Amino acid sequence: SKDEGGGKHYTFEPSLHASAEERRQLEFALRSALEREELTLNFQPVVDANKENVLSFEALVRWNSAEHGFVSPGKFIPLAEDTRLIVPIGEWVLQEACIQAMTWPDDIRVAVNVSGEQLLDPNFSASVVNALAVSGLAPNRLEIEVTESIFVRDDSAARTTLEQCMALGCGVALDDFGTGYSSLGYLRKMRFSTIKVDRSFVQGAAVDNPESLAIIRAVVAMADSLDMTTTAEGVETEEELAMVRKLGCTKIQGFYYGRPMPAADARALFSNDRTP
Ligand code: C2E
Ligand code: CA
Ligand code: CA
Ligand code: CA
User: What are the residue boundaries of the EAL domain, all occurrences included (predicted)?
Assistant: First the structure.
């Protein structure tokens, strides 16, 4: 509708789905977001569960649109996927994430989210090679995050591309684990470096939920025996932290240790301990 942010709406509009018109306007704005430099990256720390030092940051894209203000990735990433705008946007994200990581100590890694649409683009591995070359980042400092959904569509094409990335030396993490595809068959064929346990198993009521605990315990045991690390996502409270630690998750990500922050703030974490 035209009067966004204006008067009150008394008509019922399902809020989970943007109207066709709103979607069309967002798509139009998204088409020029890159050239208008409206996209930025935020970085969220991932911390060692025991030693509590920062191991890596996950790059999370932000869009501040001239017309629409801040639009959440939950809204514009699906749109970018449907329109294939995710390919150029994803290339920019990869490159910018690698460039930022070069400003951190050289044992700190960076994780980048990659959509299925991007992964199945024939130029994907070339864009990884390019981002590493342009930035000078060592391949083993880059981790690519994918969700189980990529194995639903074209299992072998996705695997081939991820194997090319692993051959370069990059890590591959399985994101949002436990929320998607129910078959574990692909775990036999692909060696991930990390499994990220979805925050729905970690948060709030789930802490007191024996089923959630049993699932996390099983995921950790499986990851251990397959030589993968486990990241608990969405840890916000002391209680959640204590629980995922006790269950043996090796890495922690969530508001408890830090929210996604601008690149300058991530960089500053490493200069703070210098005495002036
Ligand atoms: P994700 O990959 O699962 O990223 C984690 C999301 O959880 C982020 O939301 C982060 O801000 C949020 N989060 C982290 N810790 C906590 C916590 O303790 N509590 C709560 N409630 N939330 C927490 P964000 O930044 O809004 O991103 C949403 C999703 O958008 C991401 O989920 C990812 O699927 C997608 N996304 C973000 N950036 C990119 C990107 O550059 N490329 C692609 N393809 N997708 C992206
Ligand atoms: Ca992710
Ligand atoms: Ca996730
Ligand atoms: Ca997610």
Answer: 23-274
